[in-house]
Amino acid sequence: MKKRFFSVVSFMLLVTFSASALEWGGLVKNNTDVKTLDFEEYGISQDEELYIWGKVPFGKQSPFSLVGELVYKGIFDFDNNGLSTMENIIDVDIFKIAGNIEVGQASSINMSLGRFYVSDSTRKLFSQLIDGGQMTFSFPWIGLSFFGGFTGFINSHVTPMMEADGIVLKPNSILYSVNIPYLVGQTKIEFPYFMGNTLSLEALGFFDTRDFEISRYFGELSISGPLNNSVFYKFDTIVGFNNSLEFSNYTNLTYFSYPFSFMMINFGVEYASGKIGPLNPFYPVTSQVACSANSHPALSGVLIPNAAITISTGSFYTSIGGKFLFSWPDNTFTPSGGELSLMSQFNILSDIKVNISVDGYYDITGGGETNYSASLGTAISL
Fold it and tell me: Does the model's pTM come out above 0.85?
């Protein structure tokens, strides 16, 4: 079945990216994940993924190209109760006309039109595919970015999104299921040399075409820079509101230290508002970025101190991290639990990578949410 699918995908790409194709490639991924709830219940998930991409320039002198990527995902889940599910996903996750125009020394204009990936500055609100257009103006002293588009045709199997009330939209059909129909607009301005720091201001609007009265709006401020030669910081804050002027907030502060060329140490704290005073729960738009700990699926009503050590060499990468979760859904503030995680990546060859990860969350409230997981994955470039 996999060989047949690979042949079909290859034929489609050869037709689409014909003799004029100058670049193409692919990636095969395999991942096995084992999870247990306090060693009483367990589940096993097996994922198989195939990505094939191609890039066709419009001419030797043209700065524009047609870029596309096809993806197949096969997911099999099994648990100790004998329940099993199998899901097959086929999607065109990238299909765009893109180009970069040089307008002077160290200045450029980048344009994309079609289906492509976008993200806000914090990557904690909106980080996903969109159908639309984007323009980015890069100059030595200032950067400007604009994008607009529609999310209703994005496959919710591939890109789950979150409703304004924090509920994740569930796919309602196999293979391809439409998503929350937001009209999205974004404007961003960045100052790369703001008093020795990088400062960005961003505004985003999400207009729900099912009912414009529940549309969502966000303003972001991000600033980062050095404290000395080896210590840096990054501060992000998001203020969200809706048509009823119900406000929410997300804030993150992280410090980065580089004691050695191969080591990074980071520590910080992040906060996502709950129903506290004038604030309401903060809910991201992209569900995949809404995760604060293994047992806490939504980034809302929490305060999370965290720290991690990362070691990276030419063929080896590993990260050990920990975080402690305080629940703050309303005027009550209680400790909930702690999480430890280990992730390592080995570059066996230039085209083969092996990933190993282990996570554990210990629930100190007695709520029965203690859980552990381990995964083993490979990625092979074609």
Answer: yes
Structure tokens at 21: 């194709």
pLDDT in tens, 239-249: 999 888 899 99
Measured CA distances, 44 to 179, 182, 297, 307, 344 (Å):
27, 34, 19, 29, 20
- Per-residue pLDDT, 304: 93
Q: Note whether 158 and 171 are within 8 A (CB).
A: no
d(CA 312, CA 307): 17
Backbone angles phi, psi at 295, to 5 degrees: -100, 5
CA-closest candidate to residue 324, choices 303, 342, 309, 343 = 303
Note the helical H segments in the chain: 2-16
Give per-residue pLDDT as tens, 300-357. Answer: 899 999 999 999 998 899 999 999 999 999 989 999 999 999 999 999 888 999 999 9
Burial of 47 (0-12, 13-18, 19+ CB in 10 A): middle
Tell me the C-alpha to C-alpha distance, in Å, between residue 376 and each of 52, 92, 351.
22, 26, 17
Helix, strand, coil abundance in the chain, percent, nearest 5 = 5, 65, 30
**Does residue 136 have a pLDDT over 90?**
yes
Q: Nearest Cα to 302, choosing from 278, 345, 335, 257?
A: 335
